Amino acid sequence: MFVQTRLRTFGITPNDNICFPVGTIFVVQGQYEKLGFPAVFGKYKKRG
Questions:
Q1: How many H helices and E strands in the chain?
Q2: Dist. CA 13–CA 5, nearest whole Å
Q3: Given 8, 25, 30, 42, which residue has the most CB atoms within 10 angstroms?
Q4: pTM of the predicted structure, to 2 decimals
């Protein structure tokens, strides 16, 4: 059984098996930081 010991959300690398565009993920992540959402939602976000 495989147990995930760390989250690798920030280590996204494009490959042939991705069905969701990697560019969209990076844009959303950038806008999330730019708009200051971590300060707003940080206390509610526990994982990932």
A1: 2, 0
A2: 19
A3: 25
A4: 0.45
